[in-house]
Amino acid sequence: MSDELDGVREHYRATGLTERLKTALAALGPEDRRLAPEQLGTLDQFHTRGLAATAELATLAAITADMSVLDIGSGVGGPARFLAATHGCQVTGVDLSEPFVDAARYLTRRTGQSGQVTFETGSALALPFDEGRFDVALLQHVAMNIADRARLYGEIRRVLRPGGRFATFDVVLTGGEPHYPVPWARTPATSFLLTAAATRAAIEPAGFRALAWQDDTETAKAWFQQLRASGPPSSPNLGVVMGPDFAQLAANLGRNLLEGRLGILTAVFEAV
Ligand SMILES: C[S@@+](CC[C@H](N)C(=O)[O-])C[C@H]1O[C@@H](n2cnc3c(N)ncnc32)[C@H](O)[C@@H]1O
Prior knowledge:
The protein has helices at residues 2-11, 17-25, 41-44, 50-60, 78-87, 98-110, 149-159, 196-203, 217-229, 239-242, 246-258, and strands at residues 68-72, 90-95, 117-121, 134-140, 160-173, 208-215, 262-271. A 7-stranded mixed β-sheet has the order 3-2-1-4-5-7-6. α5 (78-87) links the parallel β1 and β2 (90-95). The chain is an alpha/beta fold. 39% of the residues lie in helices and 20% in strands. Bound molecules: S-adenosylmethionine.
């Protein structure tokens, strides 16, 4: 297992990320000027359909201001900041990548949300939290990096209170081998995709009951087609986080969706 995690860490190693972000964000104003979370939306939502997907998932999970939310595989913290700003909840992010956690804390200071949104370095397979601690757990575009799904979903169930909700937004296998590199893996060695049915079969035995189950592949395909038609993305974008080949990684995900190799699943479960 640690070889896999090392490979995933290597993929998201992002050397010098916080310094790169400081440079890229200079265009938005001086270091001491507070940024609105949505100003970062082009570079801090590391998943298909960006901010729109986070907003829809949060609505589907019925997040309210009195809730304590855990974002697992929180990346550079965009979804966590959005949830706190829009729904008024407390959010904790946890991520395997130390440079990402460092960048997430920096960006959260820039948006003035450090009192409401915090981040920790840690693995989804050994969450550093007590059982029953959270009302909602979010997992957006992370499960593809994790081979041991029984342990992943078991850990998520452990940290949720009974009746709490687990909201997931994942890339799933639909047919054939994907073209690599993709945004979560440059080679198949760190990619552990399952079909939607196999994902559900791994989640439910961990102690969950499905509340919502959506195939969002067509919406994602339309989004990628629009992206292709609109030419190079404006700056700053996820290239700052993942490096200059990010456009190619994202284009391959779009191609895999359009060729019917991959699909997009949105689902919400209740902890039973
Ligand atoms: C594609 S990014 C998605 C980031 C974030 N969820 C978002 O949507 O903006 C995948 C993230 O999952 C994290 N990750 C992968 N495997 C992990 C694990 N075993 N434990 C914790 N985080 C993990 C990576 O470090 C990376 O930040």
